[in-house]
Amino acid sequence: MKELKALNKSLLLMIVVMLIFSACSSRKYTARPAAGSTIAAKAAEAMSHLKSKELYRFINDWTGVQYALGGLDKTGVDCSGFAFLLQKNIYGSVLPRRSRDQADVVNEKSIANLNEGDLIFFSFGGNTVDHVGVYLNHNFFVHASTTRGVVVDDLSIPAYQRAFVKAGSLKK
């Protein structure tokens, strides 16, 4: 009987040891990044490379503000209103209020030659400019999205590539 109890204790101890070692196995598990997290990480990196700390603070302060057609404050803002406010508060420049009019006051540049603060224009509803954003760096821009509010986005996303009309810096 003593031998049976000793054997049971040995078996129990061996099972516990095996469970411990199997729980601490060297197998590596990799988690998949959440959808969009790669873009979010790249957007955060683009933000960290901004030359203007005032621009960084402005974007940070406005990120997530809801879209509102004709809006010009933190209860809601549209794309041209956001570009208007950003240019006024950060660069001291006065833009027209509508995106299609804003497109008329830029010296056109290729995307490869854009600088921080340059404007980017899109047409999602036809041939005329109907959306504007502000270029940051590394192919990222900030804008007031109709669905997500003020957000930093990747210009290389196919929807933006298809809708791109022109970009440039303000005429002096």
Automatic annotation (TrEMBL):
GO terms for biological process: proteolysis. Keywords: Hydrolase, Protease, Signal, Thiol protease. The keyword Protease applies. InterPro entries: Murein_DD/LD_carboxypeptidase, NLP_P60_dom, Papain-like_cys_pep_sf. PROSITE patterns: NLPC_P60 (PS51935), PROKAR_LIPOPROTEIN (PS51257). Pfam families: NLPC_P60. Residues 49-171 form the NlpC/P60 domain. The keyword Membrane does not apply. It comes from the Bacteria. GO terms for molecular function: cysteine-type peptidase activity. PANTHER family: ENDOPEPTIDASE NLPC-RELATED (PTHR47360:SF1), MUREIN DD-ENDOPEPTIDASE MEPS/MUREIN LD-CARBOXYPEPTIDASE (PTHR47360). Belongs to the peptidase C40 family. This is Hydrolase. It comes from Pedobacter hiemivivus.
